Every structure is written in C-alpha cells, then in structure tokens.
Amino acid sequence: MNRFTSLSSLCLSERDTDLPVALGDGGRKNWGAFTDDVAKLASVLKASPEQKWALAFEDSYLFATAFFACAHAGKSLVLPGNLQTGALTELSIHFDAILHDSRVATPVGTTSVSLPLSDTQSTFDLKLEAFDWLALTLYTSGSSGEPKAIEKSLFQIQEELNQLEAQWGAKLEGAHIQSTVSHQHIYGLLFRLLWPLSAGRTFQCHDLVYPEQVVVKADEQTTLISSPALLKRMIEPASGQYRAIFSSGGPLPISAAHSSQSCLGALPIEVYGSTETGGIGFRQQSTETTAWQLFSGIRAQLDNVGCLQLLSPYIDPDHWYQTADLCELYDNHTFLLKGRADRVVKIEEKRVSLPEIEQRLCQSNWITDAASILHQQDERQIIVAAVVLSAEGEKMLAETGAGKFKLMLRQSLREWLEPIAIPRQWRFVDAIPQNSQGKRQRQAIEALFNRTQ
After folding, report:
1. Taking every annotated instance into account, which residue ranges of this chain make up the domain AMP-binding enzyme C-terminal (predicted)?
2. The model's pTM
C-alpha cells in the first residue's frame, strides 16, 4: 500500500518506480517514467521567460505531467474550461503560453509546447519550492456570458484532497479510476487526477464518453467518476459492478441514482459544491429527501432568505461565503437543498420556483428530464419548459398529437402548481442543452423558444 502523499512532495516521494500511474492507448505509464517526464518538462519551463501557462489536454497523464512540471518550475497555472480553438484564442490574453497535447489545436501566434517531449530534453533536480502557494486559475464556462476566472491556491487544493482521502480513501484502496468528466474542471481535477496520484491509484488517460463504454468497464476494482449528464442515460445492465460511483456537477434525479445502482452495481455518491466553494457536502440518495452531509471542517448557516452561508477551508477560513442555494438546515451537519434563489422568479407579483416546476414535471412517467425558464413574450413574461420524453411519453405524444398532449401535461401540473406557474409554451427535445461541465446552458434553452414555429 502506498501512503497518501501531499502534492508538494509527491514527485520527491520514494515510490516503487514500477508503480502504475496511468493506463492509455500507449500502454501503462509507471511512477519512474512520470517523475522523469515531470523533470524534463520542468527543465524546459524553468528556462522559459513565460510565467503564466495554460494547460489544455485531453490526455490526463500529459496534463498531470504539465501540472507538476509547472508547479516545480515556479510557474502559474491556468486551466481553460473549454479546449476549442476559438475559446482558447478568446482566453489567450490571460496567459503567456500554452502546454497541450496533439489533440488540441492552439491559438495562432501563441507560444506553445506540445507533449510528450522528445527523449533528448535535459532534466533537472526537482526541489520543494513555494509549491503550496502557487496560483491556480480555473475558468468556468457557466451557463452564459464570459468565462469566469476562479483563483485557487494549491494549499486550498491540498486541504480538499486531504478531506477526500479521509472520507473515502479506505473504500477506494487499490481501485483503478475511470472517468467521464474532464480534468480541466475542479471536480475532475480533484477526483480523477490529483486524488488518485496522491494516493497511488491508477487512472485512465482518456474519458469514457458513451454509456456503452461505462457498462463495459464496470468491475469491483474500478471506481467511476461521472456526472448526472451521463448517469441519466444509463439503461443497460453491466455484467460487473463498480467499487464506487461519484457524481457531481448538478442535481442527480433519484430515478438516475437508482438506475445507476441497478445497472452499475453502486448507488452514486453525490458531491455538492462548485469551483468557487470546493466541496460542500455529499449524500447517497436512497429517497428524494435524503439529507446532504457537510464535509468535515465546514460550518454552515442560513441568511435571512434561507440561502446557505459557508465557513470553509477551501474558500476563506476566516470569512463567511454567501451562496444562492436555498437550504433547510437539520442540524450542524446535515441539510436539504431546495434549489437556487436566483431561480425563484416573480410573475404578476407571485413567486414561482423554477426548480419545483422541473421536479413536478419529472414526477410524470412521460418525462425523464425538464428545464423551465422565465421567457419574455412580447410585453409579458411567461414560464416555458423544454422536456425530454420517456418512451412512454413519446408513445403518448404520437397517439394524442402535440396539442392534446400539452394540455394533458398542463393538467397534470394543476394538482401542484398555481396557474401562473404552469408553462405556457413547450419544446420536446432529445436532451437539455448543457456545457462540458454538465451545467445547463440558459442561452441555448432560451433559443429554443426564440425560433419561428
């Protein structure tokens, strides 16, 4: 067993050089090769005048190499949330140079270094520098608008890794890590990459993209790092079962939680948090009212409108952080999430909860997912809804026609909602628009209702 090691001393730890680090198309990468690769790149970066380096990789092993090489060379790290060339070009004013793999096309005119390096590169002796206090900037793509920069110290990252290992390290001992989420975002960075590296667990170099791939990889020696976007699509039972499944990035419907348990052999451990806050709490959703449990070391209270406030070592341990998440606190350790305050809207002086509309819609056997928004129609505002139909819902739509089916949907909501909250317009879609982080794209949903019928 390999002892859990801090990020700052990881590449200096005396691990077996044959210890597997990552598995990919090119075979197995071991510990000796990893530390050599980090040293080679750190030598190149140390000699470079550029200070702020963006990391843009599809390959997680090469990303890890770049991450630790930058840290040991005293460089600042920038993590774009989107690897498309246009997005990287737009963001290029915020970094001096870019490290990338062959799958990523870099902006024209930007200083870049492609990995892997050739074998002729020189190495230098890795040393402990001001590793814990180096700047790490993550860019979240959000639901709309400009990418948002979130600053993190590696000290804050380390605090969160310590918590993850204390909470679940024993459960995951010896497990191999598969993932459907990118290391370019905080959840994937921690769960699929830095935590396995620190604990000596192997990880896969590339994402699983399709449910069929997730099914094939299920076995007792594997842990899956995933998101609601993929887990909601699980319908085919696997021949094996995962050691554990983690989900983050948005609320996981209870139907998806139970479907994951049925198909993949494990009830997902949901992690609630954000890039800004880090992890806040976790749960395994056996019922719709299963409480969330705060991570150790985090204190919570509610403001005067019922929104959660946090005192957390992953943000600022000396100041309370204000969220827009409506909550009910059961005690000092457990709570219930009730949606976001910025998704409670006023129509004709009445408060309408968009999350409640979505929840009520998803209670129907005809609907598997739903998104409701406030939409401007001429001179007034109305509630509209985009829904994903189940097989039963598609059959009913075909049998009754769109007009009658929409009336039936409205009728089903009257038991729960006031008339003003019942959607006036509907769109039937294959999937709710979302970005690579699994967050819903407000502008894309709005565009569904701006099109000419």
Report:
1. 356-439
2. 0.83
